[in-house]
Amino acid sequence: MQIIKKIDELRPIIKQWHREGLSVGLVPTMGYLHEGHKSLIDRAVAENDRVVVSDFVNPTQFGPNEDFESYPRDLGADAALCEAAGADIIFNPEADEMYDNALTFVDMNKITKVLCGKTRPIHFSGVCTVVSKLFNIVTPDKAYFGQKDAQQLCVIRKMVKDLNFDIEIVGCPIIREADGLAKSSRNTYLSADERKAALCLSRSLETGKKMIENGELSAAKVVDTIKAEIEKEPLAKIDYVEMVDLNNLETLETVQKPLLCAMAVYIGKTRLIDNFILE
Ligand code: PAF
Q1: Do residue 159 and residue 198 come from a single domain?
Q2: Are strands 24-29 and 142-146 parallel, antiparallel or unpaired?
Q3: Ligand 1: residues within 6 Å at CB?
Q4: What spacing in Å lies between the alpha carbon of 254 and ligand 1's midpoint?
Q5: Domain containing 191: what range?
Q6: Which of 35, 167, 205, 249 lies at a C-alpha separation of 20 to 30 Å from 79?
Q7: Is 34 a catalytic residue?
């Protein structure tokens, strides 16, 4: 497995793969890889002849008061995980390599302005821009994204359709710790007490899901019950809990599939996200 930092070094390798008729899978990441990322890489390795994992903490998707500087990084551990999983290349550019005085950005209306987009107004423009650039650099046949970032997955699917990228987007299920906490690089920020408190996300989502399974039809009742359960936890502060139509991310009044029930909750200073989808 190779670690490549320059676009000009990566491109000829991928062109050669395409000439040989080999399929290419891309797993875009910001590094500090965990089991959730590994599940994406495993799937990409199973479904493609060659796999590129991008490992780039993308500055343009962080707001001014967010955790860009402190975001955890460990290229050595990432390389070991990718190698063991059977990836072929880690693409690990510097910010200057990706944004050399760039003046062009990809933005999207509507579905980037709701849910996480309300508190993180520039986030999805940064995501769409870097993912478009990665798509143009790596020219994959398939790209793999986790359902934990459900809004991101929805935004990327829409961008691929709108901009006619000839790439199949593969969404992969959320990977959880044994006690239910969704795996996230940001879990490393949590103290022991915060780690326990963070279970209110998955626990309250389970409660909401059960209400729906038992026939509850009012989206507001489900959301209010989830919020009430989170509010019992003193270290938790809700950013949002919402139930939306999975296709357009518009708020639902009545429980109607396909739906996304998504939340962002601060545990101490750490903002965590989680969700469930019913299709
Ligand atoms: O999901 C992430 O880790 C990032 O948002 C992504 C897709 C790699 C873009 O930087």
Answers
A1: no
A2: parallel
A3: 28-30, 58, 61, 127, 130-131, 149, 152
A4: 32
A5: 185-272
A6: 167
A7: no
